[in-house]
Amino acid sequence: MLFLKYFFYRVHNFVNKRRSNKDPEDYAFYVTAIFLALNFVGIFMCIANIMNFKKFTISPMLRVGLFLLLIIIYILIYRRVILNGKYKQFCKNAYYESSILNNLSIGNFFCIAFMITPLALYIIATLTFHRL
């Protein structure tokens, strides 16, 4: 959870420096949520290929239900973090002084790895799909 807060903080600072008149917390939340969802999808694809699901189909009703569940989860997290203003606590540099993310190069490495991981997982899932 600390890493997701740090990723949110880094995106928030990035947007705030470039567009100070916009809402950087909204952009940071959307970017964090999208990359988290992409990582989950990539992990799911790799697990499905390792378990040798040749044809994995989801009924349209289940697909709509999962999509609605995901939206409800994101809305609950958005209300708890953004609307209540809790993001202001961890959008300060002092919040990360006692963690490993205090070192800027380590924090940058984890942020870049978090953004590259979905692409790597999709490539791995595609390569293993034809070999299994």
Features:
single chain, 132 residues, mainly alpha, 5 helices, 0% strand, globular
Topology summary:
Blueprint: H1 2-18, H2 24-50, H3 60-83, H4 87-90, H5 104-131
Q: What coarse outline follows from CA principal-axis ratios? A: globular
Rounded to the nearest angstrom, the distance between the terminal CA atoms is 34 Å
Identify the quaternary structure here: single chain
Count of runs of 4 or more consecutive helical residues = 5
Helix content: over 70%
What is the H-and-E element order?
A: HHHHH
What count of structural domains? 1
Kindly provide the radius of gyration, computed on alpha-carbon positions and rounded to a whole number of angstroms. Answer: 18 Å
Keywords: Membrane, Transmembrane, Transmembrane helix
Transmembrane segments: 27-48, 60-78, 106-129
Can you offer a commentary on this structure?
With about 130 residues, this protein is mainly α. The protein has one domain (about 1-130). It has helices spanning about 1-20, 25-50, 60-85, 85-90, 105-130. α1 (about 1-20) crosses α2 (about 25-50). The mean pLDDT is about 80.
